[in-house]
């Protein structure tokens, strides 16, 4: 039973209050009057019940004015109760536990991600730093493109047909 909003408006002459219990879609209202025959009224309509408790089955969550009277005393209540069929009631301790567990799990994931990313960065920089930089300088130059090879001794006849042209 989940109650999102229950508001009470008790008549100014009373020191007593209504007791409202909500379970699923059933709303039980207990009148502060205990003696005599109690007349119930729901939004202007007189009800047949004469007991101290009035039960509204399958309440549709619509606001209602409820009053109970006996003799010269009348108590009024503005009922604005939000009800639902498949709701579960959670007490404050359960909600606090769920929120705390969620925060701890989130914090744990953040710490794991931080340490794994820190390790990865450390390995990458250690791997690059462990290699001496001189090795890069000692590598042989890349093989030149054969179209631009220098003319070697004994190969001049290949280029003999290419004479410079005067422009």
TrEMBL record:
Residues 124-155 are annotated as: Disordered. GO terms for cellular component: alpha-beta T cell receptor complex; external side of plasma membrane. The keyword Membrane applies. Gene3D superfamilies: Immunoglobulins (2.60.40.10). It is a single-pass type I membrane protein. Keywords: Cell membrane, Immunity, Immunoglobulin domain, Membrane, Receptor, Signal, Transmembrane, Transmembrane helix. It is found in: Cell membrane. GO terms for molecular function: transmembrane signaling receptor activity. GO terms for biological process: cell surface receptor signaling pathway; positive thymic T cell selection. It comes from the Eukaryota. The chain crosses the membrane at residues 92-116. It holds the Pfam family Ig_5. This is T-cell surface glycoprotein CD3 epsilon chain. It comes from Phaethon lepturus (White-tailed tropicbird).
